[in-house]
């Protein structure tokens, strides 16, 4: 399994996703600011992976803290948490992981632990978040594989694979699990302009796994559906609101509308850490606006003329009404999502 991000004694190591597929390069972050910069500049990306990176960045920063007492240690800790929180606004896993690290620290302080013991606690919690993410991806993959039809021709948008998680993937976790059961005939990966996550990353992962893969541009998805070339659609998510509205890579909404028009099941795969019951609906999800140069240029090659305006939202919101089901590690939630998503957190038996 591709190691997206790993904790090592001298830093956090992650694959530089900006260099793929041409080069497989690994970056070693030795400080919390270096981890934050890696998140901000998309060395690492994908909601679950960002959460893991933030947790490891916090633990790494506290390993290097010079604080001698609990009060100064807590000041350093909160400063690093704020640094991580300021990197990217949409993916809720980032904030979920920060809050989890805060709870770990609070428990240690309440127990009267020393600074060294608090640091060991934070390192263990970050590693636990990593390991749980891999396990959750495998579990949701198994749930999702059940609803994939035999001989499926599957469309996915952006990258929700091992690269977007601690390993195995969400949407690609479903595809991998279905492929292990011999159910996948072909995967179509949207190119995903402007950052090309589908062409560069999803196709790279699937080719490595020897799963039949074809890259298409977003504008080709509609004609392909009309020709009855798609049986099943699964995408990831960066934040899911309490009512089931889904924020994912920009272009996902278009795919969902086309899926509804052509009668194709449209599923979203995400761990519970991506579900934000505190956000009532998609209108309350902050949408990150990224640098215009991602659209106006491809590397060093200029594509758009100087003077042209650029609109570059990183994400869009797909209304819950367009979502067939939300695949999680605890089963598949279905409409009405206000009820089914809440039940997942209340320890209800696996949904189907």
Strand content: 15-25%
What name goes with the CATH superfamily of the largest domain?
Answer: Translation initiation factor eif-2b, domain 2
CATH class of the largest domain: Alpha Beta
Listing every helix as H and every strand as E from the N terminus to the C terminus, the arrangement reads EEEHHHHHEHEHEHEEEHEEHEEEEEH
Give a short account of the largest sheet.
7 strands, mixed
> Which ranges are low-confidence, i.e. pLDDT below 50, for 5 or more consecutive residues?
none
Overall 3D form = globular
User: Mean pLDDT, as a whole number?
Assistant: 96
Radius of gyration: 20 Å
Number of helices in the DSSP assignment: 11
How many separate domains?
2
Gap from first CA to last CA: 28 Å
How would you sum up this structure, described in words?
This protein has 352 residues and is α/β, with parallel strands linked by helices. The chain folds into two domains: 5-136, Up-down Bundle (Four Helix Bundle (Hemerythrin (Met), subunit A)); 142-345, Rossmann fold, CATH 3.40.50.10470. The chain has eleven helices and 16 strands. A seven-stranded mixed beta sheet has the order 6-5-4-7-10-15-16. A four-stranded mixed beta sheet has the order 11-8-9-14, with helices on one face. The chain has a three-stranded antiparallel beta sheet with strand order 1-2-3, with helices on one face. Strand 12 and strand 13 form a beta hairpin. It starts with a strand and ends in a 7-residue tail after the last helix.
């Amino acid at each position: 399994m591709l190691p997206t991000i790993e904790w090592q004694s001298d830093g956090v190591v992650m694959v530089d996703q900006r260099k793929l597929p041409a080069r497989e390069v690994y970056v070693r972050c030795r400080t919390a600011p270096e981890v934050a910069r890696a998140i901000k500049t998309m060395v690492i990306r994908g909601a679950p992976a960002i959460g893991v990176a933030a947790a490891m960045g916090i633990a790494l920063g506290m390993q290097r803290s010079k604080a001698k007492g609990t009060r100064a240690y807590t000041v350093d800790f909160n400063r690093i948490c704020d640094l991580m929180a300021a990197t990217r606004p949409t993916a809720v896993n980032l904030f979920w992981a920060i809050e989890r690290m805060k709870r770990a620290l609070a428990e240690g302080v309440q127990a009267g632990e020393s600074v060294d013991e608090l640091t060991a606690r934070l390192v263990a919690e970050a590693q636990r978040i990593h390991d749980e993410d891999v396990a959750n991806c495998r579990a949701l993959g198994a749930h999702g594989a059940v609803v994939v039809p035999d001989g499926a021709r599957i469309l996915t948008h952006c990258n929700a694979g091992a690269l977007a998680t601690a390993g195995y993937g969400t949407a690609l976790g479903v595809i991998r699990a279905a492929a292990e059961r011999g159910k996948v005939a072909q995967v179509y990966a949207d190119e995903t302009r402007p950052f090309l996550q589908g062409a560069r990353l999803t196709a790279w992962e699937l080719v490595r796994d020897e799963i039949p893969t074809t890259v298409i541009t977003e504008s080709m998805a509609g004609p392909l559906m009309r020709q009855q070339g798609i049986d099943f659609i699964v995408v990831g998510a960066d934040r899911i609101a309490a009512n089931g509205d889904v924020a994912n890579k920009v272009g996902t909404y278009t795919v969902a509308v086309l899926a509804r028009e052509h009668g194709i099941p449209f599923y979203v795969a995400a761990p519970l850490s991506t579900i934000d019951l505190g956000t009532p609906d998609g209108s309350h999800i902050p949408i990150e606006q990224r640098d215009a140069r991602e659209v106006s240029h491809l590397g060093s090659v200029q594509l758009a003329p100087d003077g042209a305006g650029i609109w570059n939202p990183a994400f869009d919101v797909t209304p819950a009404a367009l979502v067939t089901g939300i695949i999680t590690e605890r089963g598949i939630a279905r409409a009405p999502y206000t009820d089914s998503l809440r039940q997942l957190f209340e320890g209800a038996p696996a949904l189907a």
